[in-house]
Design brief:
Distance between the termini: 40 Å
Shape: globular
Number of domains: 2
Structural class: mainly alpha
Helix content: 55-70%
Strand order of the largest sheet: 1-2
Strand content: under 5%
Largest sheet: 2 strands, antiparallel
Radius of gyration: 22 Å
Number of strands: 2
Order of helices and strands: HHHHHHHHHEEH
Length: 246
């Protein structure tokens, strides 16, 4: 196995596989072992409380934030932001990080819903139920990966502390999405909490693998003097050698 493949295995594939195992284990505990224990016995009460206070204004607000977490919107926003980052920064680390974080959470979410069969809350559902388990919330985990990941990127790019703090306000977007899914009767509270675990862990994994400048993903290639360097440095190294050769 090449060094590049080993790095991808250890820094991306293995951590994501472990996250998937944790999510499935947590889902099994919630649905099979802890189902009759507090606080999971009180979860429907939270959904009933939201359902009992539904009015026109909050209905519209929660519909908007539900749309923010919809798959087509997440894909479109991720693509646009990635393109803007690439054009503005002239490098691939940040856009690849964001795309990888969003993609990883989607994979973990999808396979977790296939393994965990959990019914949605016993209240009136304000949205059509997708053919997936209630555990975890896909809208919420996607919003976490995208908007918290974007907050991390922006906070790393700015220097002023007040700007950094302003960047982290993007965390409020997935919070609003999660609360909206509870309000609209689409998920239990533990589904939303687990989604923050999924999205947040994918951000951490991809930040360690991609944003860390100490990690190189360039292919090692031989130079003219028999040494090796990364493929990204070949052109610069060749120019340097050519200057030294009369």
């Amino acid at each position: 196995m090449s060094a590049l493949a080993t790095r991808a295995l250890l820094r991306i594939l293995l951590p994501v596989a472990i996250l998937y195992a944790v999510m499935v284990g947590l889902g099994l505990l919630i649905t099979k072992v802890w189902a009759d224990s507090w606080p999971f016995t009180a979860e429907d009460g939270v959904n009933r409380a939201f359902a009992g206070h539904r009015t026109g204004g909050p209905d519209q607000v929660t519909a908007f934030f539900t749309a923010v977490g919809n798959t087509p919107v997440i894909i479109a926003v991720t693509a646009v932001v990635a393109i803007v980052l690439r054009l503005a920064l002239h490098r691939w680390r940040e856009p690849l990080f964001l795309c990888a974080a969003v993609s990883a959470q989607a994979v973990v979410f999808l396979f977790t819903t296939l393994a965990i069969d959990r019914h949605r809350p016993a209240v009136k559902h304000m949205d059509q139920s997708p053919p997936t388990s209630s555990f975890p919330s896909g809208h919420t985990s996607a919003a976490v990966a995208l908007y918290v990941g974007l907050a991390l990127v922006l906070a790393m790019l700015v220097r002023d502390q007040w700007l950094k703090a302003a960047c982290w306000l993007l965390i409020l977007v997935p919070v609003a999405v999660g609360l909206s899914r509870l309000y609209r009767g689409m998920h239990h509270p533990s589904d939303v909490v687990a989604s923050f675990l999924n999205g947040g862990t994918c951000i951490a994994v991809m930040a360690r693998a991609i944003l860390d400048r100490g990690v190189s993903w360039s292919r090692a290639v031989p130079t003219r003097d028999g040494r090796t360097t990364t493929s990204g440095d070949v052109r610069a190294y060749g120019d340097l050698v050519s200057r030294k050769v009369p």
